[in-house]
Amino acid sequence: LGVSYSLFDPEGLERLRASVGQSYYFQDRRVTLISNDESDSEKNTGPVVSLSSQLSQHFTIGANSAWMSNGTNSQRDFQMYYTGDKGNLYN
Question: In angstroms, what CA-CA distances link 64 with 15, 39, 52, 78?
């Protein structure tokens, strides 16, 4: 379950994209790393937040963060993208 918002400028650049979401499970997961591990029985994940901005025609930045169901931050990342005139992409 999630929601996203995008803000475009008159030139068509996506100046802001913001998203927040959370997963809900209908039953325990059956996939584990080790065969005798307990299955995860949490009914939902923590929230996931994503922000990005197209700063120019060629340059975009973004950040994501995901929390565990107990509230601890489990994952964060930051990305920068540059797209050249010939379609080449640098991350």
Answer: 16, 26, 9, 7
- Collapsed DSSP state (helix, strand, coil) of residue 66: strand
Tokens representing residue 6 in the block: 């995008």
Tens place of pLDDT per residue across the chain (91 aa): 999 999 999 999 999 999 999 999 888 777 777 777 666 677 888 899 999 999 999 999 999 999 988 878 789 999 999 999 888 999 9
28 to each of 31, 43, 51, 89, how far by Cα in Å? Answer: 9, 8, 30, 40
Q: What is the rounded CA–CA span in Å between residue 81 and residue 90? A: 6
